[in-house]
Amino acid sequence: MAKWTPKHEAPEPLEGPVVPTIIGGTILWFVLFVVQLPFYGWYEDHGHTWWVWTCLAGAGLGLIGIWYVMKRDRAIKRDAARKADTDAEADARTAAGAPVDGATVEPAKPVESETP
Q1: How far apart are CA 84 and CA 65, in angstroms?
Q2: Which of 32, 48, 74, 98 could pair covalently with 93 via S-S, beta carbons 3.0-4.6 A apart?
């Protein structure tokens, strides 16, 4: 069987409102859990109690997801701010005539001639 190779590059990942999306999903799982609680007896009679507990598990995992994406979002913003500061410092050094990479420039040494 031949190895499959992609014919084009993968698209860039979509960056949308991740935190509100996870919060919305978590709220939805919790609402589904609460709505099913009054019918727990029916679910138990028909062997479907796992539906109720799945919704609770979804809400619990959603809380972990909210914590994770909020931490990730803060880290992305912190990194972007750090890069912006670094770029601004490099631009300021370039405008002042200093090297960008922070290396020092030594003054040129005088050339000695070989003639006496």
Answers
A1: 28
A2: 98
Q: Which amino acid is at 2?
A: A
The amino acid at residue 66 is: I
Confidence of residue 108 (pLDDT cuts 50, 70, 90): low
Mean pLDDT within 70-76 = 94
Task: Say how far apart CA 49 and CA 40 lie, in whole Å.
Answer: 7
Residue with tokens 């992609």: 6
- Contact, 99 vs 93, CB < 8 A? yes
| CB contact at 8 A, 39 and 83 | no
Instruction: Please choose, from the candidates 75, 78, 79, 65, the residue with its C-alpha nearest in 3D space to the C-alpha of residue 18.
Output: 65
**In this structure, what DSSP letter does residue 17 have?**
-
Q: Name the DSSP letter for residue 114.
A: S
Lookup: tokens for 33: 């859990």
Cα distance between residue 58 and residue 52, in whole Å: 10
Residue position matching structure tokens 């631009």: 91
**Cα–Cα distance for residue pair 48/69, rounded to 1 Å:** 32
Are the C-beta atoms of residues 49 and 40 closer than 8 Å to each other? yes
